[in-house]
Amino acid sequence: MEGGGDMGLVEWCRELPKIELHAHLNGSVRDSTLLPPWDIRNDLENSSCITFRSTLKQIISTGLAMRELAKDLGEKGVIAFADVAHVIMKNGRSLPECFKLFDLYHLLTTDHQTVTRITKEVIEDFAAENVVYLELRTTPKKNEAKGMTKCSYMKAVIDGIRAVDTVDVDFVTSGTSNVNCSEATPLNCIGSPIKRKKIYVRLLLSIDRRETTAAALETVNLAMDLKNFGVVGIDLSGNPVIGEWQTFLPALKHAKELGLPITLHCGEVPNHKEIQAMLDICPQRIGHACFLVEEEWKRVKFLKIPVEICLTSNIRTGRFSSIYDHFFADLYKAKHQVALCTDDSGLFSTTLSNEFYLAASTFGLNKDEMFLLARSAIQSTFADDEVKHELTKIYDDAANRLI
Ligand code: 6MZ
Q: Which pTM does this prediction carry?
């Protein structure tokens, strides 16, 4: 390989400035935040919360590890360690297993303090991998028991972005919100006299496929209210076998009318009626696209819809038995706009650097090609032109070093 001095490919992929466009907050939680320390075994074994126990039992076959948050729950007597102890990390999880895991994640993470904490940590983790622009997506949640509304959930996320202190964060640029979601003025780039890593963070609000039309509309209106707090678009995600397209359509149309860009989890299962309907509304991006057939790909290419590609996620959830069968190669050859993404870096134990390494080593891309692939994601971001310009400069600077 040319360029990049003596750097090995793994190191080079880590050094490469990267753009992450498909990352779910709760799927990106650190293992160390979730793994249970063995020293609390006794406390946990003695506690009994039937609801939590039964939830855990349901997911035992899927495997999950929990640490510090489980410790908190254990101390409060909410969690039964005997159940957790049997949970084993598995390499491959079916899609239904993933969604069972998410229910557990949410049980652990949905209170304001924890949402703030995981947001901070997730941003720091992406920055550590030299992600220079992160479009982080999350589903605003109501949780009456915790006094949580969708708006207060988002305030907790925004507080997490504000709390990052190991790197500089460019979050929003100006303006105020008419929503009482954050008392303070919008955060600007937190400057530092010392040259530190800098990451641009923007948010996508996800509509969960379990939600009603009214709940989906509430999320879109919240996204609009939070435009000055770094929200740049809407995502539709969740278990692909749940929910009807007609339920989400009014909210997605509303988003379009408001000028909010949309990205859709499209074709995670072979539901061709829904895939057609999704392409009919011309989303600004689609994610996964695992089960698209030739005619559908023709439309995606004709409409020039960028595709968020999550290699590890697609392999781990069993869509492709071999990575060599992945459609990445076809889209890449066709010069179709793609962005490599992690999906759920915590759940699938991956990083964006690893996704680049996988693509390079599997599909034989050299460093020049990888650099251009990373850089080309700039045009698929939902960021404004000023940010795109800044990102271009970051790549121009890195080019001397890396290629
Ligand atoms: C579909 C997914 C997903 O929003 O609670 N999510 N939806 N397909 C996937 N591929 C495996 N991975 C994650 O993050 C977790 C939520 O994101 C969606 C699911 O709705 C999951 O509950 P937040 O931060």
A: 0.87
